[in-house]
Predict the structure.
Amino acid sequence: MTSAPVPANPDSPAARLEALGLVLPKVPVPRGAFKPFSRSGSLIFLAGQICEWEGEVRYAGPVGAQHDLEAGQRAAKICGLNLLAALHLALDGDLDCVVSCHRMGGFVYCTPGYPDVPKVINGASDLMFAVFGERGRHARTAVGVATLPAGASVEVDAIFEVR
């Protein structure tokens, strides 16, 4: 019986993803005239990612009507995994280059007056902390909106500093 290779650094983002039982999806094809990331010096700007997994929107419709808080958080986590996939692409597979996640912006398609928009976006924020530790803590905006692309329940964007 052979064991899986142990990553050189058990605290690396790749090792943390593996320990969490998470895999990165393929980077979703943009649904508009934009690219998944743009780099300026040591900053990588990641385009908004919806809760799409391998081409299928997993959560569509408003949180607070069609989905509860927990489903919204799962949707936000999928957005976060898509962001990590785009970051992985931008860094040629080397997430160890991440210095910090500086900012995330979260958008929740929700019912009017839905009070838990920030809690929904915690699904993506918690993922970044789990993968990068303190380097994953960030400033953030969380906004409730009337609709999102493809009727997705959540969309999240991010800005990372890399070396």
Summary: Residues 88 and 95 are 6 Å apart (CA to CA).
